[in-house]
Each structure stands twice: as C-alpha cells, then as structure tokens.
Amino acid sequence: MKMQSILSGYVLHKRPYRETSMLVDFFSLEQGLIRTIVKGVRGNSKSDRKSLLQSFQKVEFTLAGRGQLKNLGRIESLNLRSNLIGNQLYCGMYINEVLSRCLPEAEPVSEIFDDYEQSLLSLSQVSTTQLSDIEPILRIFELNMLQTLGYLPDFSVEANTGEPILPELFYTFDAQSGFHLSHANAAMPYTGKVILDIADGKMSRDSTVVDRVDEQKASVDELILRRAAKQICRQAMRQLLGQKPLKSRELFIQG
C-alpha cells in the first residue's frame, strides 16, 4: 500500500466543479502549486472541510488518486487564519491570484513559499490602511518571485554593454533583456539610482530622517521609487500573466 504524502500550505483559489465539488489550488511547501478536487463540499453547510478551505490559513493535507488532478484527502488547520481586512485583504488576494497564475505546477519553490508567509505576516502587522504604504510589501514579493522563477533581468548592468548601472544616468527597461542606456526624455526613463535602490530593496523611507526639508525630499524620492518598482514589476510579470487581466486588481479600484 502506497503511503500518502503529507503536505502543508495554503488555499490560493477555488471554484465550483460539477454539482457538489470544488476545484482548489493549493500552494504547498513540498510540491509547490497543486490543483485538487474536493468532493461534497458545495451546499453542505455542516462540512468541516468547507471551513478549512479558506485563504490565508495554513493547513496540512493529503492527496489521493493517480491522475494529474488529485482528490483531497485529509485536511486540518495548522494555525489561525491571518486576519486581513480592507486594503490588506485586497493585497493578499492579489498575491494569491498572482501565484495561482504564475507558479509552475507540482514544482517545489521553497523560497517563494517562505516569501509568501512573510508577506502575509507583514500584511497582518501593517499599521496603516493607506494602499501607498502597503504596496511595498507587494513589490518586494513580486521582485523575489520573479527572481526565483528566472524572469527578472540583471539590475546591476546595462543590457547591451555589460557596464555597471550608474546612478546619474538614465535607462529604459525591457522585460526580456533588461536595462538600456537612454536619456531623460525617453518614454518611461529610470535613473540608475532608482534601479539600484529597487535592487537593494529600498522601498520605504528611512525612519531616522528628522530634518523637515530632508524628510519632504525623502517622501518625493520614495514615491518615485515605488512608482518605478510598480512599473518594472508589471512589465516583467506580463511574461507570466499574458494579456488576461488580474481580477483582484478590480478590488483596488472598487475599494
């Protein structure tokens, strides 16, 4: 008798399947993205399984079956569900949708799994509801995911020459090849300083800034940095997402 593998992870996405079942995407530590059938949970308000198939709650589960689409076996909670509300919730749903669409199936990606858990923790602990202050969590996650999956060009060198990116020069970004030397009047130019700061993970202002003039300048620099990181991530992720829009982005507009 073949032993069932015990997996741990999170529900990313679920949708109706046939009359009483659901198709559920799990992100597991051991096997990455796993798509499963969960039988008999739709319309059954007394089902314990239904209450466990919630986003942002870590669960332990087993799979059964020989085909590519497995049946969910045992499932139980490993900890309390992350309490996300408002924009934090929308950001969590955005990350889940990105993972469901970008991850390769049945391939372990422990670095991304660790980043996912850290992002959920950061979202649950953030003290502000302002989207502009929450978005750096998304950018850091996106950049790490793209780097791990091999879709992020080198941020340290110019694509054509291999020369180091210089803070005072301007560059344009191409998702396939990387950063190209350009000028200030080009479409969507980035300074070398912004590129290097994104690579260093400098998404938020230094809390030690005390001078009012310096603090105001830091706020402007921070805004420029965040906008650039968002544009670069969107361009790079288009290779994985294709032309189909993300449904979770509509939540930010509606909210």
Automatic annotation (TrEMBL):
Q: Where is the DNA replication/recombination mediator RecO N-terminal domain?
A: 5-79
What the entry lists under Gene3D superfamilies is as follows: Nucleic acid-binding proteins, Recombination protein O, C-terminal domain
Entry keyword Nucleus: no
Query: What residue ranges are annotated as transmembrane?
Result: none
This protein's UniProt keywords:
DNA damage, DNA recombination, DNA repair
What InterPro entries does the annotation carry? ARFGAP/RecO, DNA_rep/recomb_RecO_N, NA-bd_OB-fold, RecO, RecO_C
What is this protein's function? Answer: Involved in DNA repair and RecF pathway recombination.
Protein family membership? Belongs to the RecO family.
Q: What is this protein called?
A: DNA repair protein RecO
Taxonomic lineage per UniProt? Answer: Bacteria, Pseudomonadati, Pseudomonadota, Gammaproteobacteria, Alteromonadales
Gene of this entry: recO
